[in-house]
Amino acid sequence: DYAGSNALAKQIEQGAPADLFISADREWMQYLADKGLVQAQTRRELLGNELVLVAPKPSTVTLRIAAGFGLAAALGSGRLAICTPAVPCGKYAIAALQALSVWDSVQGHLAQAENVRAALSLVSLGEAPLGIVYASDANADPGVRVVDTFPQGTHPPITYPVALLQRATNPDAAALLQFLESAEARPFFEKQGFAWLLN
């Protein structure tokens, strides 16, 4: 199943049938770990990502992300597509905008989405002039272009932990995890815009 990390973690907590969990941040993996729902020995930081500002492909907007950059002016009367703070992409985006001292100028001009793909779709369809998403998602949508990348120090590190769940019943789950961690899988992830975190 594909959804925001928070939604998936809650579904797993409520007994949804799943064998493996890949989260978009450490917090939701830890949430399940604290409830004894993951096999601790299988938990790894698998991938990393970047946070990017995107615009619809035809847009000519140019911005360089830095302290106090002109995001509000670039929005004009439009809204900034952003995930809700309940999901990791929203948490990272708000942290970055606050660190860059532009949050106050845009917080009243948001189009909040329940997950990163929904935020990306608002930009891709031209319903929002700008949005903040993961680089890997921007890479997957030909309807957007990356305007600039948020500096790493402006938000918590974006990592994707993976673990088998305690109630994993599929005999192939461990093999799938082993494949995801293999050198064979690495080029696939990197082609999609992820950073490889395993040695």
How would you explain this protein's 3D organization?
The protein has helices at residues 5-13, 26-34, 71-75, 88-99, 103-106, 116-124, 135-140, 173-180, 186-191; strands spanning 20-22, 44-48, 51-56, 80-83, 110-113, 130-134, 144-149, 159-164, 195-196. It is 34% helix and 21% strand. It has 9 helices and 9 strands. Helix 1 runs parallel beside helix 2. The strands form 2 sheets. A 5-stranded mixed sheet has the order 5-4-6-3-7. A 4-stranded antiparallel sheet has the order 1-8-2-9. The protein has 199 residues and is of the alpha+beta class.
Give a quick summary of the entry.
The protein is an alpha+beta fold and 199 residues long.
Strand content: 15-25%
Integer average pLDDT = 95
User: What is the count of β-strands?
Assistant: 9
Query: What distance separates the N and C termini?
Result: 28 Å
SSE string, helices as H and strands as E: HEHEEHEHHEHEHEEHHE
- Kindly provide the radius of gyration, computed on alpha-carbon positions and rounded to a whole number of angstroms: 18 Å
- Largest sheet at a glance? 5 strands, mixed
Structural class estimated from helices and strands:
alpha+beta
Please state the overall shape, judged from the principal axes of the Cα atoms: elongated
Give me the number of helical elements. 9
**Poorly predicted parts:** none
Helix content: 25-40%
Major beta sheet, strand line-up: 5-4-6-3-7
